[in-house]
Hints:
With 73 residues, the chain is an all-alpha fold. The chain is 55% helix and 0% strand. α1 packs across α2 (39-57).
Amino acid sequence: CSLCHDKRWALPLGPGALKAMRHIAYADMEKLFGFTVGEQSLRELGAATEAYILKITQRHLETLEFYKTVQQP
Length: 73
């Protein structure tokens, strides 16, 4: 929407990541995680989700930074 569309933090999304985001936004709770995406789409979805959370909360999340140090490559 016009409130979120800001070229300074907008991220390009491929069709797979966009489809996954739409599924997450509109699916019933029982079907929320009932989808699969490829590695590239998963990276895009993760980056977009992280950017959204950081933009909305306007906070530095120490737990997120810790998770990034211990996650598998």
